[in-house]
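To assess whether the prediction recovers the assembly geometry, we first specified each molecular entity separately, as shown.
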Amino acid sequence: MKFQAVKGTRDFYPEDMAVRNWIFERWHRVARRSGFVEVDGPIFEYLDLYRVKSGEGIVSELFHFEDRGGRALAIRPEMTPTLARMVAARAPSLTRPIKWYSVPRLCRAERPQRGRLREFFQWNVDIIGEKGPLADAECIYVAVDFFRECGLKPEHVVVKINSRAVMADVLRHAGFAPEQFDALYAALDRRERVPAEVFEESLGALGATRAQKEIVLALGTQNGPAGLQKVTALLTGDDAAQVHLAQVGECFALLDKLGVGEYCRFDTGVVRGLAYYTGLVFEGYGMGGLQRAICGGGRYDQLISTVGGPPLPAVGFATSDVVIQDLLVEFGLLPEFQDKVDLFVIDAAPEQFERVLSLVDILRRANYSAVFAYRRQPLGRQLKAAAARGARRVVIVDPLTAPGEQVILKDMESGRQAVVTVDSLMADPFATI
Amino acid sequence: MKFQAVKGTRDFYPEDMAVRNWIFERWHRVARRSGFVEVDGPIFEYLDLYRVKSGEGIVSELFHFEDRGGRALAIRPEMTPTLARMVAARAPSLTRPIKWYSVPRLCRAERPQRGRLREFFQWNVDIIGEKGPLADAECIYVAVDFFRECGLKPEHVVVKINSRAVMADVLRHAGFAPEQFDALYAALDRRERVPAEVFEESLGALGATRAQKEIVLALGTQNGPAGLQKVTALLTGDDAAQVHLAQVGECFALLDKLGVGEYCRFDTGVVRGLAYYTGLVFEGYGMGGLQRAICGGGRYDQLISTVGGPPLPAVGFATSDVVIQDLLVEFGLLPEFQDKVDLFVIDAAPEQFERVLSLVDILRRANYSAVFAYRRQPLGRQLKAAAARGARRVVIVDPLTAPGEQVILKDMESGRQAVVTVDSLMADPFATI
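The predicted structure of the complete assembly is given in tokenized form:
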């Protein structure tokens, strides 16, 4: 009986795992150097946790099942509900600000199609317990620090920044009722992905008058500092709005001081689809042929209390291994991966094999990767096996050429070789020969 | 609404994640230095994959569900079926021997109880395409190399080794029919966990005669080299059995040469519960108060062809993070984890904050972890925050004491401080002061 991986999932053969690990290593490194600590939760939660955060509609997007006790469980489709639950459970004892990151495996019951996987990994970075623009700026900084670490430059990726608070001020100014906001955010979020007339129609369908439509359409997208000025002018005299605008301005000033301003741009086209954002929202956007969001986040000051915790401000973002890999491939930034071992240890004759095994043990204990041929073969065939395995250097146990406590050390790239003592081999197996 | 983690799962707060990462790092390090490369598969597979390997009985032990297309899927309860599927799919193109390892997340629909988690991690190490005792010995070596790496000595953990092939020879010699073997293996596997009379009764229930019982009971457990001699004597004249016994002997000789012989012991009490083992079987066993298996594996030469691949010999083992943590706690071998950052950067007065941010960026780009206070506070309070955050050193931007391109560098352990240039800070922030 022949089996395949379930559609929409991936097998990670060594070469795929190397790519995944390359990305993951940079996620860990960048989060840690900004002082974030790693957390994780279970891969499944009570189904209700997702219902509470996202409503009944989420259920069809989840892989859900019952345990023996009949409890409804679901594989996590995102990390934030778990994070909020974990913070809520221990809120009093956690030192603020809580700076957490995670690299969760997630599943969604998508209809499998190109670019829509049913299983993927995310990088989540969150700051909880801090409400100022400094926390917003630090989250965006971490995203950009990762881009820089991968060699991505401002021509490859831009971080579009907006504020839900400012957008609410604009919508209020235009005379929309607060209960219309969520639907308007959803329409605005789709704006760049649909033709202009479709977007305009969707505003009409939401009951927008001609004057209201004009205000919303005038907001524009991809508008940078001029956009921020335009909104500021529009909201002249609205003191609360000016406070929100000043916060956005401060965030940009902080990003400049943190050295990542050149990646960042104000953009009224970004509102993010999720209902739970309350303040700043942002989105990394891949340029070139990609032209799509590659990470997203923002401020969600209500969520911790929604899952039973105290009111705690929070800001965070997520990105996935799938979009990051697409982005790196698009710009040719993924290195070629070749699986190497440090040393391949060879017996010149089978009676030397015992020494091969003890050398291998010594080398491994010193944390060098060391392998040997499983079958006793002539020297030439073992050398070929060493080359095939990607060995950097070969150690040959051959008492005729290297008697006593000596071995032959051969560099596979230069082809040079030398007789060395075992002591000097252990001191530095990559010493010049 | 307050939520909890599902029973039998774990939340990994920073201190829990530190333990998990400590164990995982050693799994990766040890596998890699023996030349194993990492792979992974999806967290769910077609339910049939597990049915084919383990029979219909497995279904109740799995979390299973249907996708939108009505296909029956299950969260993986073990990695081996996925591994076998992946090898089978690409068998012709994979370079032999295939030396793979993985650190899969796994779930089992256990009734939650102490020590029985519904979600856990495993370390799987497998050699595919090699049938000799050298591959068996290398797998056991890797397990022991991990024990050594954690500081576990032969008084903490012993690897019990036996052979299904030899056990089959003994059972055949005793006159049992091959169709009785699987049930007998299961009974033998439980032998040490039940009273002697219960074990004897279970043999009777399987139709063993008095003479047959005597042969099986005489096998004993925890018997070392004397046990191997006893079995060899019992099977004198059985040429096939002597070949199997010689293979076991060779495996022990190889383990000695690889430097891990002192951890290993022949033990006819070990047969492993799983039906698919075909040759050598082994089990790491935790001593002290633990007295339980902490890893297990063996040769499974039929599995790859069972899932549609070519006939390929294979040997491997697995252990889980849960038992390893128990073992390390039992012997006090887990270090204390304290989350540290390299540097905490402080402004002596708020007008220096801009320089704090730019220093933080420079330090992070050089891959030092660097943080700062989110609120502008007096120097003393920032120093306290730095101590609370576990900062190794503090950088103070204070133009009065350290004018121009200088800063104050303070060591938090010794309390010593010095005025240094930013250049020398960047050259080595941990230089002696």
